[in-house]
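user: can you give me the structure for this one chain? tokens are fine.
assistant: on it. calling the predictor now.
[tool input]
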Amino acid sequence: MSFSITIEEQEITFLDEDKNILNTLERKNIESHFHCRDGFCGACRCTLKKGTVEYHEYPLAFIGDNEILTCCSYPTSDIELVIE
């Protein structure tokens, strides 16, 4: 199943083979900060404006309300993100 990810009015498709949102962003050459790729550092934190995500393993880095870590999450619906 594929879901759409909207970032600054650009819509991209999450593919199952991407495994996580960060891989989708990289595949589409969308710049996003990251370091550990495992949910430890929180560098890939962004705002989830719409939709829902799940985590392969819940991250250890702090996640505030309406925030997600792209390195270890995947969409469970169409989502809209703000990457800062």
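assistant: here you go. Residues 21-27 form the longest helix (7 residues). The first strand starts at residue 3 and ends at 7.
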